[in-house]
Amino acid sequence: MKRRSNFPPAPTKGVRTGEHCPRTGWWAPAGGKASTTIAGEPRFIGEGSVMPPINGIPGTWLPRSVHTESALIRRIAL
């Protein structure tokens, strides 16, 4: 029997504003000036949703890894 994973692999090149989200999870802007403000913070986006602009500007979104999220939670808890 073929093994199946619960989630498809995350895209490595990112997803552009206006494209549909390939999987549910936390997504973060791919850097640059637009990602330095609150509107550029990581967002939880559902599969099939249209990827939003970053501070009103089209941009690229990258998936956040579980490791990155757990490190962020530990840092906030301190």
In short:
Helices cover 15% and strands 18% of the residues.
Question: Your description of this structure?
Answer:
The protein has 78 residues and is of the alpha+beta class. It has one domain. 15% of the residues lie in helices and 18% in strands. It is built from 1 helix and 4 strands, in the order ββββα. The protein has a 4-stranded antiparallel beta sheet with strand order 1-4-2-3, with no helix packed on it.
Strand segment count: 4
For the record, give the distance between the C-alpha atoms at the N and C termini, rounded to a whole number: 45 Å
Number of domains: 1
Strand content: 15-25%
* Mean pLDDT metric: 76
- Structure class: alpha+beta
**Which regions are unreliable across 5 or more consecutive residues at pLDDT < 50?**
none
- Name the strands of the widest sheet in spatial order: 1-4-2-3
- What kind of sheet is the major sheet? 4 strands, antiparallel
Discrete helix count: 1
